[in-house]
Amino acid sequence: MAALVDTYSKTRLLQCAATAMLALMLAGCNTTKDKMTTGSIPVALNKPVETMNDQEVRSATDRVGQAYEKNPRDPVNGVNYANLLRMQGRDAQALAVMQQVAIANPQDRNVLAAYGKAQAAAGQLQQALDTIGRAQTADRPDWKLVSAQGAILDQLGRSSEARQRYRDALDLQPGEPSILSNLGMSYVLTRDLRTAETYLRQAASQPTADSRVRQNLALVVGLQGRFPEAEKIARGELSPQQADANVAYLRSMMSQQNSWQKLAAKDVGTATASAN
């Protein structure tokens, strides 16, 4: 990353925060255990896609991809294959996979949710919002989908609407760390770091919080200039290699921004990082 204190630097910083938020929120739509369609043979995954390391992702992509090629209509393999592709930055290919799966399963709620996730990752934010809206039902609202709507609204720069969706999701799933984390990251996008930290600390204190929540907290603490504390949080329960990578990322973010206060004086200038 370039260490430039300018509008681009701030925009890039906020986009990184937005990407982290969207990745965490939409990860909740994973469907590795959905029911099978008749005649399908889903490939079992040992762990959620978003928690795999690079080697595990590559290995699983080969296995699931082969199964998908044999039956592109299967919703389980299709969703898992698209998620694995996205983990490798192959967003256009993931979207193409989900388009085919959605055509074959137009009423499948989980498929629609995953299709919306692929659209969002590919930058088709309004389409993603519409697709996830179709996956939601009034009689059985899914907090993951409500939260996903919030993440996409934040990407669209509609912060007030996004935060209301997060609060709606918390009404359905009180104390859920992924929702609290993304509510906190929503405030990062509008440069309110103190409020962001409050929500992220609530999220990290939950027994079910995972390392991604704590990494978001480390980012926000670091952005306020408390790097030793941020490094301690970032290392947490991670392996030394993962911790070193995260700390290196935090350092690059700190050097890029050269203090949040200086960057906060500049306008973002892009829709994905604009404040209401």
In short:
With 276 residues, the protein is mainly α. It has helices at 7-27, 54-70, 75-87, 91-104, 109-121, 125-135, 143-155, 159-172, 177-189, 193-204, 211-223, 227-235, 240-257, 260-264.
Overview of the molecule:
The protein has 276 residues and is mostly helical. The protein contains 14 helices and no strands. It has helices spanning 7-27, 54-70, 75-87, 91-104, 109-121, 125-135, 143-155, 159-172, 177-189, 193-204, 211-223, 227-235, 240-257, 260-264. Helix 11 (211-223) runs parallel beside helix 13 and helix 12 (227-235) runs antiparallel to helix 13 (240-257). The two termini are 27 Å apart.
Q: How far apart are the first and last residues' alpha carbons, in Å? A: 27 Å
Please report the number of helical segments: 14
The ordered H/E elements are HHHHHHHHHHHHHH
Shape: globular
How many strands, which pairing sense, and closed or not: the largest β-sheet?
none
Structural class: mainly alpha
Record field, number of beta strands:
0
Helix amount, in percent?
55-70%
Low-confidence stretches: 1-13, 25-40, 259-276
Average pLDDT, to the nearest integer? 80
Cα Rg = 19 Å
Strand content: under 5%
Helices and strands in order, then pairings?
Blueprint lengths: L6 H21 L26 H17 L4 H13 L3 H14 L4 H13 L3 H11 L7 H13 L3 H14 L4 H13 L3 H12 L6 H13 L3 H9 L4 H18 L2 H5 L12
Helix pairs in contact: 1-5, 1-7, 1-9, 2-3, 3-4, 3-5, 4-5, 5-6, 6-7, 7-8, 8-9, 9-10, 9-11, 10-11, 11-12, 11-13, 12-13
Key phrases:
single chain; 276 residues; mainly alpha; 14 helices; 67% helix; globular
